[in-house]
Structure formats: structure tokens, C-alpha cells
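The protein record reproduced below.
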Amino acid sequence: MLTTNRPDLLERALAQRPGRVDLAVEIPLPALAERTGLLRLYSRHARFSPEALQSAAERTAGTTASFARELVRRAVLTAAAAGEAVADAHLNAAVDELMADAETLTRSLLGSAAGTLPSHSHGPQ
């Protein structure tokens, strides 16, 4: 079994030789309803409002399930570091942070289309 978010980067010998890959299954990025459900699932102990979850899902188009998990993780850690109960504001701040231009690499590492590096980029210098 092989999983990847970047099939375009597979070694040619693996990707183009018959018999090396028996079955390839593409799992599309989650749509709005799925992103909302993922955020609800990952934040079941954080108790964000339905409105905050919906807003976060709307603002994170093109992201993966792992991105949703990281988003909630960051919101919870930010609240803990501030000694506060987790609140909608923490989720909103986490969305702002992770969707900012400075987080393109993070989004890319999480497999999100919203994090795709420009084609001229070769990563951090």
C-alpha cells in the first residue's frame, strides 16, 4: 500500500511501469459539507459554535482532512497557552494563521491544494 498527496512527484520507475501499482484510488479534497463535518469531528471536545465551524469550513476551501485536524489542534494549543477556555475566537485566529500567505509551505505539507507552492518555487532556500 502506498499513499501520497503528491502523485506528480512519484519516481518514474514506480509510476510508469506496469505491475508496480495494482490500483490507484484518488480521494478528492473534502467539499464544504465534509470540511464542516471534519471540523465538528476533530473539535468534539472543544465545543466551537456551529457558526464558527461553518465559517472555518467556508474559509478553508481546497484543504485536506489533516489540515482540519491541524486547525483545531492550533486553536486548542493557542487557548491553552493563553490560559483560556477554547472559544470560537481561537478557531478564527487559527484559520487566519494557517490560511495566511506565510503558511503556504505548511498547507502544502498538509496536502492542501490551497497550499500549493508556485511552480517556480523550489522550497525554502
In short: The first helix runs from residue 12 to 16. DSSP finds six helices and no strands in the chain.
